[in-house]
Amino acid sequence: MLPENHIVTRRDVKNARLKVCEDGVVQLYVPTSFTEEEIERLLEKKAKWIASKQEYFKQKSNIKLRRNEILMFGNRYSYFYSSKYQNKVIINHESKTIQAKRDLLDKAVKEKWLKSVAKKYISERVETLSESLLLPYNKLYIRSQKKKWGNCSNEKNISVNWRVIKAPEFVIDYVIIHELCHTVIMKHTVKFQTLLRSHCPDCDAAQAWLDKYGNSL
Hints:
three-stranded mixed β-sheet
Protein backbone atom coordinates (compact mmCIF):
# COMPACT_ATOMS: atom_id res chain seq x y z
CA MET A 1 0.00 0.00 0.00
CA LEU A 2 1.44 3.36 -1.05
CA PRO A 3 1.85 6.14 1.55
CA GLU A 4 -0.97 8.67 1.39
CA ASN A 5 1.08 11.82 1.82
CA HIS A 6 3.97 11.45 -0.60
CA ILE A 7 5.49 14.08 -2.89
CA VAL A 8 7.36 13.14 -6.04
CA THR A 9 9.88 15.58 -7.51
CA ARG A 10 11.61 14.84 -10.80
CA ARG A 11 15.17 16.09 -11.15
CA ASP A 12 18.14 15.72 -13.43
CA VAL A 13 19.77 13.09 -11.20
CA LYS A 14 21.02 9.53 -11.73
CA ASN A 15 19.52 7.86 -8.66
CA ALA A 16 16.27 8.14 -6.72
CA ARG A 17 16.37 9.51 -3.16
CA LEU A 18 13.77 8.97 -0.47
CA LYS A 19 13.20 11.09 2.63
CA VAL A 20 10.63 10.96 5.44
CA CYS A 21 10.05 14.36 7.07
CA GLU A 22 9.19 14.94 10.72
CA ASP A 23 5.56 15.69 9.78
CA GLY A 24 5.30 12.24 8.16
CA VAL A 25 5.40 13.48 4.57
CA VAL A 26 7.35 11.20 2.22
CA GLN A 27 9.51 13.10 -0.26
CA LEU A 28 10.79 11.20 -3.27
CA TYR A 29 13.33 12.69 -5.67
CA VAL A 30 13.63 10.69 -8.91
CA PRO A 31 15.31 11.01 -12.32
CA THR A 32 13.17 12.69 -14.97
CA SER A 33 12.99 9.38 -16.84
CA PHE A 34 11.30 7.54 -13.94
CA THR A 35 7.85 6.18 -14.81
CA GLU A 36 4.84 6.01 -12.49
CA GLU A 37 5.28 2.23 -12.28
CA GLU A 38 8.90 2.60 -11.16
CA ILE A 39 7.87 5.11 -8.51
CA GLU A 40 5.19 2.76 -7.19
CA ARG A 41 7.62 -0.17 -7.08
CA LEU A 42 10.16 1.89 -5.17
CA LEU A 43 7.59 3.09 -2.62
CA GLU A 44 6.27 -0.45 -2.15
CA LYS A 45 9.80 -1.78 -1.70
CA LYS A 46 10.53 0.84 0.97
CA ALA A 47 7.09 0.63 2.63
CA LYS A 48 8.33 -0.93 5.89
CA TRP A 49 11.21 1.54 6.18
CA ILE A 50 8.83 4.45 5.53
CA ALA A 51 6.37 3.19 8.15
CA SER A 52 9.13 2.76 10.74
CA LYS A 53 10.38 6.31 10.14
CA GLN A 54 6.87 7.75 10.37
CA GLU A 55 6.28 5.89 13.63
CA TYR A 56 9.60 7.16 14.97
CA PHE A 57 8.61 10.78 14.32
CA LYS A 58 5.18 10.19 15.87
CA GLN A 59 6.87 9.29 19.14
CA LYS A 60 8.57 12.68 19.21
CA SER A 61 6.77 15.59 20.82
CA ASN A 62 7.05 19.30 20.26
CA ILE A 63 7.26 21.69 23.20
CA LYS A 64 4.83 24.42 22.26
CA LEU A 65 5.49 27.89 23.60
CA ARG A 66 3.35 31.00 23.77
CA ARG A 67 4.70 34.07 22.01
CA ASN A 68 6.18 35.57 25.20
CA GLU A 69 7.67 32.31 26.52
CA ILE A 70 11.31 31.24 26.45
CA LEU A 71 12.36 27.63 27.01
CA MET A 72 15.20 27.22 29.48
CA PHE A 73 16.22 24.42 31.87
CA GLY A 74 13.19 22.43 30.70
CA ASN A 75 10.77 25.12 31.86
CA ARG A 76 8.74 27.84 30.18
CA TYR A 77 9.84 31.30 31.32
CA SER A 78 7.53 34.26 30.66
CA TYR A 79 9.37 37.26 29.21
CA PHE A 80 8.39 40.82 30.15
CA TYR A 81 9.88 43.97 28.66
CA SER A 82 11.17 46.36 31.34
CA SER A 83 12.88 49.71 30.75
CA LYS A 84 14.35 49.52 34.28
CA TYR A 85 17.08 47.11 33.23
CA GLN A 86 19.41 48.80 30.73
CA ASN A 87 22.14 46.16 30.44
CA LYS A 88 20.78 43.35 32.58
CA VAL A 89 18.49 40.40 32.10
CA ILE A 90 16.73 39.55 35.35
CA ILE A 91 15.79 35.87 35.70
CA ASN A 92 13.49 34.73 38.49
CA HIS A 93 13.68 30.94 38.62
CA GLU A 94 10.94 30.68 41.24
CA SER A 95 8.29 32.61 39.30
CA LYS A 96 9.76 31.49 35.96
CA THR A 97 9.95 35.05 34.62
CA ILE A 98 12.53 37.00 32.64
CA GLN A 99 12.68 40.81 32.57
CA ALA A 100 14.88 42.84 30.23
CA LYS A 101 14.97 45.98 28.14
CA ARG A 102 16.33 44.06 25.14
CA ASP A 103 13.76 42.36 22.91
CA LEU A 104 14.17 38.69 23.77
CA LEU A 105 11.19 37.84 21.58
CA ASP A 106 13.33 38.67 18.56
CA LYS A 107 14.75 35.35 17.34
CA ALA A 108 18.31 36.57 16.76
CA VAL A 109 18.45 38.52 20.05
CA LYS A 110 17.02 35.58 22.00
CA GLU A 111 19.46 33.11 20.47
CA LYS A 112 22.46 35.32 21.19
CA TRP A 113 21.35 35.73 24.81
CA LEU A 114 20.63 32.02 25.29
CA LYS A 115 24.08 31.19 23.92
CA SER A 116 25.63 33.47 26.53
CA VAL A 117 23.56 31.80 29.29
CA ALA A 118 24.58 28.38 27.97
CA LYS A 119 28.27 29.27 27.82
CA LYS A 120 28.34 30.43 31.45
CA TYR A 121 26.19 27.62 32.89
CA ILE A 122 27.73 24.76 30.89
CA SER A 123 31.30 25.95 31.51
CA GLU A 124 30.74 26.04 35.26
CA ARG A 125 28.90 22.70 35.26
CA VAL A 126 31.59 20.97 33.20
CA GLU A 127 34.25 22.17 35.63
CA THR A 128 32.25 21.00 38.65
CA LEU A 129 31.42 17.56 37.23
CA SER A 130 34.93 17.03 35.91
CA GLU A 131 36.42 17.63 39.36
CA SER A 132 33.81 15.66 41.33
CA LEU A 133 33.88 12.64 38.99
CA LEU A 134 37.67 12.72 38.50
CA LEU A 135 37.26 12.91 34.73
CA PRO A 136 39.70 15.59 33.52
CA TYR A 137 39.38 17.13 30.07
CA ASN A 138 41.57 19.44 28.00
CA LYS A 139 39.43 22.17 26.41
CA LEU A 140 35.70 22.93 26.31
CA TYR A 141 33.85 24.31 23.31
CA ILE A 142 30.24 25.46 23.20
CA ARG A 143 29.03 24.57 19.71
CA SER A 144 25.98 24.84 17.47
CA GLN A 145 25.97 21.28 16.14
CA LYS A 146 22.98 20.31 14.04
CA LYS A 147 22.82 16.62 14.89
CA LYS A 148 24.97 16.14 18.01
CA TRP A 149 24.46 17.15 21.62
CA GLY A 150 28.12 16.77 22.36
CA ASN A 151 31.47 15.45 21.21
CA CYS A 152 34.84 14.42 22.56
CA SER A 153 38.10 14.37 20.56
CA ASN A 154 41.12 12.11 20.99
CA GLU A 155 42.86 15.09 22.61
CA LYS A 156 40.15 15.10 25.33
CA ASN A 157 38.63 18.31 24.02
CA ILE A 158 34.90 18.20 24.61
CA SER A 159 32.14 20.21 22.99
CA VAL A 160 28.54 20.69 24.08
CA ASN A 161 25.64 21.95 21.99
CA TRP A 162 24.43 25.26 23.46
CA ARG A 163 20.80 24.25 22.80
CA VAL A 164 20.83 21.80 25.73
CA ILE A 165 20.41 24.87 27.96
CA LYS A 166 16.72 24.50 27.05
CA ALA A 167 16.60 20.98 28.51
CA PRO A 168 16.12 20.05 32.20
CA GLU A 169 19.24 20.19 34.36
CA PHE A 170 19.49 16.40 34.67
CA VAL A 171 19.57 16.19 30.86
CA ILE A 172 22.31 18.84 30.65
CA ASP A 173 24.32 16.88 33.22
CA TYR A 174 23.83 13.70 31.19
CA VAL A 175 25.20 15.29 28.02
CA ILE A 176 28.22 16.65 29.91
CA ILE A 177 28.94 13.39 31.77
CA HIS A 178 28.55 11.42 28.54
CA GLU A 179 31.33 13.45 26.93
CA LEU A 180 33.51 13.39 30.04
CA CYS A 181 33.27 9.58 30.04
CA HIS A 182 34.56 9.61 26.47
CA THR A 183 37.81 11.09 27.77
CA VAL A 184 38.40 7.62 29.23
CA ILE A 185 36.67 5.38 26.68
CA MET A 186 36.06 6.75 23.21
CA LYS A 187 33.74 4.09 21.79
CA HIS A 188 30.26 3.14 23.01
CA THR A 189 31.36 -0.20 24.39
CA VAL A 190 29.88 -2.14 27.31
CA LYS A 191 32.64 -0.69 29.51
CA PHE A 192 31.66 2.82 28.41
CA GLN A 193 27.99 2.20 29.26
CA THR A 194 29.00 0.82 32.67
CA LEU A 195 31.15 3.89 33.35
CA LEU A 196 28.40 6.25 32.19
CA ARG A 197 25.74 4.58 34.35
CA SER A 198 28.01 4.64 37.40
CA HIS A 199 28.35 8.42 37.08
CA CYS A 200 24.89 9.17 35.68
CA PRO A 201 22.14 6.84 36.99
CA ASP A 202 19.51 8.95 35.17
CA CYS A 203 21.13 8.43 31.75
CA ASP A 204 18.25 6.37 30.34
CA ALA A 205 15.64 8.93 31.40
CA ALA A 206 17.78 11.77 30.05
CA GLN A 207 18.28 10.07 26.69
CA ALA A 208 14.56 9.31 26.52
CA TRP A 209 13.81 13.01 27.12
CA LEU A 210 16.15 14.01 24.30
CA ASP A 211 14.65 11.41 21.98
CA LYS A 212 11.18 12.77 22.67
CA TYR A 213 11.74 16.51 22.91
CA GLY A 214 15.16 17.09 21.34
CA ASN A 215 13.67 18.38 18.10
CA SER A 216 12.09 21.25 20.07
CA LEU A 217 15.42 22.59 21.31
